[in-house]
């Protein structure tokens, strides 16, 4: 197979950006992994890119005192979290806008003092009473924090010129019932247009590019249907394990951790109808239609796996049951594969195979759109029945973000031999490297009040409605053969069997 690169027309100059209003970003869970590795670096990069208003402040909230949460001080603590350039002259001005408030999330007095702190910041920094409350905490705290913000009069704007919004992290609930209950709790305190349910996959350029690829080009959409597409594969493979998050992961597993949210979001972008506009309500409506058209998933179309001990690159790798704070008899799945059927005019009869797993051969999130064979085999070799390799479009979300189109080309010479060739588009080659971790775009959108790339109540409940019956069935039917795939592999044999039953196999990645 040979590669053919596409030449790239340089992008037009960036349109002037609209800056958010002055505001305070209050991060609950400030000393946590997400804040240090992703949120603070994202805010810093926005500041570096001159995308934030000059009147902005960040207040981190967590239980322990500052010197324990960010040892020995805020600046060094932020640097230690990674993702910022320590010698950048913009780092000090950024840090000067970040402060810290130690309190327990369930202590009402803490909210009184937080409210006073925020008023003081409004006066000092000119942040004008606008608030963005980011709940970067374990999900069990979401309802308490929301309730206490409401009880302390912090959930409503103080005038018709100010705003209060909240970003709520995933997982939003742990099944359909709890997601509904959480939605009810949150809706008692915040109006729907104040709520931003985040899924950082929607902030990734390559995920947004799925919509651009489909709806800003006229050449692909005509073949984007059951007449031309044989099946779709979505793979979200991680080479890392659970990285010390034993207690969280034991209660989550791959379905709750990434399939119900990240993978379902990606799938909806691949499968949705063109929205009437790029307004939040129009995009969300089309996504929900896709999830609601997915048929109940048969038990034999839901595969689970758990990684066992192995050797990776000559080094021993622990199995999931040997990880810190994981039960030695755990039934939690670290791998899940599903066959989904979307019963609508566009997709009837086109299976969507999705898989997600920890400790797989490599880190790779990618979508393959596999096309049907041409109706007539004009170029078959004399005496053979072999099929030519089908065309596919592969969209790489990460790493090596880009898109490949594979097609057949004539091999030079006297006979009509065909070879598969690739046309490759690489994001980095075309537009240069990007520091965007998904959170930059989404933080900025929330500050601007644009909810297009955030989940809506209906969507969250629609995806839980699909996933919950599988979770319930798995709970009732423990597997006796776990662990069933070695760390560093492509998952359990049962996952290959899922496609084999349909005469297909996962594309080799
Ligand atoms: N980490 C990641 O890469 C990702 C995380 N998420 C989501 O983000 C959220 C946060 O995850 P993560 O950062 O990993 O979690 P961590 O466990 O690392 O952080 C939890 C934070 O909450 C604080 N906290 C816990 N209990 C209390 C309490 N009673 N009162 C005050 N503060 C408290 C902790 O403060 P202290 O240290 O003082 O106890 C800490 O700041 C989760 O919903 C997760 O699903 C989503 C995508 C990716
Ligand atoms: O939300 C989560 O996502 C990460 C994967 O995110 P990525 O941007 O690195 O692909 C996953 O590792 C984590 O378990 C999950 O909670």
TrEMBL record:
Residues 1-20 are annotated as: Disordered. One of its GO terms (biological process) is glucose metabolic process. The active site is at residue 262. PANTHER family: GLUCOSE-6-PHOSPHATE 1-DEHYDROGENASE, GLUCOSE-6-PHOSPHATE 1-DEHYDROGENASE G6PD. Substrate binds at residues 200, 204, 238, 257, 358. It comes from Granulicella sibirica. This is Glucose-6-phosphate 1-dehydrogenase. Pfam families: G6PD_C (PF02781), G6PD_N (PF00479). Pathway: Carbohydrate degradation; pentose phosphate pathway; D-ribulose 5-phosphate from D-glucose 6-phosphate (oxidative stage): step 1/3. Its EC number is 1.1.1.49. Belongs to the glucose-6-phosphate dehydrogenase family. NADP(+) binds at residues 29-36, 63, 170.
């Amino acid at each position: 197979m040979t590669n053919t690169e596409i030449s790239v027309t340089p992008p037009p100059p960036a349109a002037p950006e609209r800056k958010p209003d002055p505001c305070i970003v209050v991060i609950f869970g400030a000393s946590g992994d997400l804040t240090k590795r992703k949120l603070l670096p994202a805010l810093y990069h926005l500041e570096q890119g001159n995308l934030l208003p000059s009147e902005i402040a960040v207040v981190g909230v967590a239980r322990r005192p500052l010197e324990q949460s960010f040892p020995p001080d805020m600046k060094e603590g932020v640097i230690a979290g990674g993702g910022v350039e320590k010698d950048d002259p913009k780092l000090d001005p950024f840090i000067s806008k970040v402060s810290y408030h130690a309190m327990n999330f369930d202590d009402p007095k803490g909210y009184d003092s937080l409210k006073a702190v925020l008023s003081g910041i409004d006066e000092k920094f000119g942040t004008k009473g606008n608030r963005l409350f980011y709940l970067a905490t374990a999900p069990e705290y979401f309802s308490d924090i929301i309730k206490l913000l409401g009880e302390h009069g912090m959930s409503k704007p103080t005038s018709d010129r100010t705003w209060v919004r909240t970003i709520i992290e995933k997982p939003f609930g742990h099944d359909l019932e709890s997601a509904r209950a959480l939605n009810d709790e949150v809706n008692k305190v915040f109006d729907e247009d104040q709520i931003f349910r985040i899924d950082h996959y929607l902030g990734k350029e390559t995920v947004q590019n799925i919509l651009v690829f489909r709806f800003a080009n006229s050449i692909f959409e005509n073949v984007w249907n059951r007449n031309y597409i044989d099946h779709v594969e979505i793979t979200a493979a991680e080479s890392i394990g659970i990285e010390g998050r034993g207690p969280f992961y034991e209660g989550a597993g791959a379905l709750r951790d990434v399939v119900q949210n990240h993978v379902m979001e990606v799938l909806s972008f691949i499968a949705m109808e063109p929205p009437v506009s790029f307004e939040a309500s129009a995009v969300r409506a089309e996504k929900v239609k896709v999830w609601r058209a997915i048929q109940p998933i048969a038990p034999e179309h839901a595969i689970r796996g758990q990684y066992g001990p192995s050797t990776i690159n000559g080094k021993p790798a622990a199995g999931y049951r040997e990880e810190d704070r994981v039960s030695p008899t755990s039934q939690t799945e670290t791998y899940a594969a599903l066959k989904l059927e979307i019963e609508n005019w566009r997709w009837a009869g086109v299976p969507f195979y999705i898989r997600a797993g920890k400790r797989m051969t490599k880190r790779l999130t990618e979508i393959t759109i596999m096309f049907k064979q041409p109706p007539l085999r004009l170029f078959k070799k004399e005496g053979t029945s072999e099929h030519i390799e089908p065309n596919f479009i592969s969209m790489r979300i990460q790493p090596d973000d880009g898109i490949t189109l594979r097609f057949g080309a004539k091999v030079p010479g006297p006979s009509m031999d065909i070879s598969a060739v690739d046309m490759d588009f690489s994001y980095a080659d075309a537009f240069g490297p990007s520091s965007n971790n998904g959170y930059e775009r989404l933080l900025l959108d929330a500050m601007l009040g644009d909810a297009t790339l955030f989940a809506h109540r209906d969507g969250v409940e629609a995806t839980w409605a699909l996933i919950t019956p599988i979770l319930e069935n798995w709970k009732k039917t423990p597997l006796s053969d776990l662990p069933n795939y070695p760390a560093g592999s492509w998952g359990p044999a049962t996952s290959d069997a899922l496609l084999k039953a349909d005469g297909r196999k996962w594309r080799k990645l």
